[in-house]
Model the fold of this input.
Amino acid sequence: MLPHTQFTTLERFILNQERIHPEATGELTNLLYDIALAAKVIAAQIRRAGLVNILGAAGAMNVQDEEQQKLDVFANETMKDALNHTGRVCAMGSEEDEQLIPIPEGVPAGKYAILFDPLDGSSNIDVNASVGTIFSIYKRVTTSGPGQLSDVLQPGTAIVAAGYILYGSSVMMVYSAGKGVHGFTLDPTIGEFLLSHENLSTPRTGKYYSVNESNFGRWSKGVQLAVRGFHGDDPDRMKGKNSRYVGALVADFHRNLIAGGVFMYPGDIKNPKGKLRLLYECAPMAFIAEAAGGAATDGRRRILDIVPTALHERTALVIGGADDVGYVSMVIAESEDGA
Done:
């Protein structure tokens, strides 16, 4: 007799969520599946990168004045192609495009707007380290016609669903629609994302901290003191942690989500507002962190409460276990009060 096997695909899981939560819609289900399809295409191309001469720089700069990698361009176009013809979205925004991306003429404008970072951590591509895709979905606030900036310039509290895809030793899609965080691992033999991590919960205090300490001398006194606390210099309030830093937000966040920890990208003298993008990176990750029991701030304010004023607005980010994030905010506040 063959052994009994039971598995849940991404599509089946999302459909089951619709039955459990009446406010869920089939359109959102299909939109998440569109993103999963794009992720499969991107993952396949990443695996083949060294074989088809697409590693390295594309020879152009994106809107962030960062050199685009060839896979950046491919991933961006793949995301747009998977989403712009379905009639489910009214507009898109990408970290790689300066302006709001309109839906092609002749395609009906849907009721959702979507923002994405098509390939987070692309500087890792040429060294075969982990990269990812980040996305967030909003309900449009305009009533008809093509989407407008107001449809995407919404605070993170308005996010309907958000997630990321990690292209590492395996490919994982992690998403939340506000009720739990769920992870799916791609089985390349059948081409399906299978449920592997249901109802993820992140520890309030973790054993890892992730930050680029080469910037230490440019940080504020409060940030420096908080990081020293993670070194073990404040034992009465914070146990020392181990340093782990990949340099790709998706990879660092995913490890800390599972194993427990905190990721920081604070502002500094060179980038006083921080370097990460509020809409494409920080808000969707903050949505996931909070749904898993964690927290996310800019060191002072809750990330999800920040109302964006521009597509490519930047912010500082402290994200991870609730107690770890709270410790950083406390130390920064104490430093400012004593200044």
